[in-house]
Amino acid sequence: MNIVLFGPPGAGKGTQAKKLSEHYNIPHISTGDILRANVRDGTELGLEAKGYMDKGKLVPDEVLIGIIKNRLAEPDCVSGYLLDGYPRTIPQADALTGILEDIGKPLDVVLNIDFTNDELLSRLSGRRMCTCGVSYHIDFNPPKQNGICDVCGGKLYQRDDDKEEAIMQRLEVYSEQTQPLIDYYANTGIMVNIDGSGDIDDIFADICKALE
Length: 212
What we know:
Elements: E1 2-6, H1 13-24, E2 28-30, H2 31-41, H3 44-54, H4 61-72, E3 81-84, H5 90-102, E4 109-114, H6 117-125, E5 127-129, E6 135-137, H7 164-186, E7 191-195, H8 200-211
Parallel strand pairs: 1-3, 1-4, 2-3, 4-7
Antiparallel strand pairs: 5-6
Helix pairs in contact: 1-8, 2-3, 2-4, 3-4, 4-5, 6-7
């Protein structure tokens, strides 16, 4: 099963990616993770990418697609892969299509976990954090005592990027970047939209049903 996964901030994409990886026994390939691994391991493409990153520049598409191509050629991808974080632009989608054809691993499906902005705003703005690392949600996972961590007794706080203005900005950026890609893949006939408003297990069941 060869999959690309899309989903807005707060959609639980990481959770579903982990469950899909385990269920179908395919690697979850995060482009950020493999880019950092190539830089850490000092591969030829990793060193080239590091040169751009050290200057504060974006890694060019041709370098990133080379890193992805090498990763998809590894033995654990023989039964498929789940690609997360790539593509982000139409030129990247075109390049990805080309390399997947070259290596004989074309996409089977593009999964898009779909949410309304109101649902995402409620989900993200309700998060509360503690300095000890424990997280809560005022509606779905509240602490026993309002504003106080169950584990250490510390005072809970709301991250700046979980405040309404910041969330709306993140969602606007995501929509601007991703809607053209959703349209692109919808035209190929391999796009599947999944309602992300249910609980984790229900969403996963919907995804599996769509895939099977």
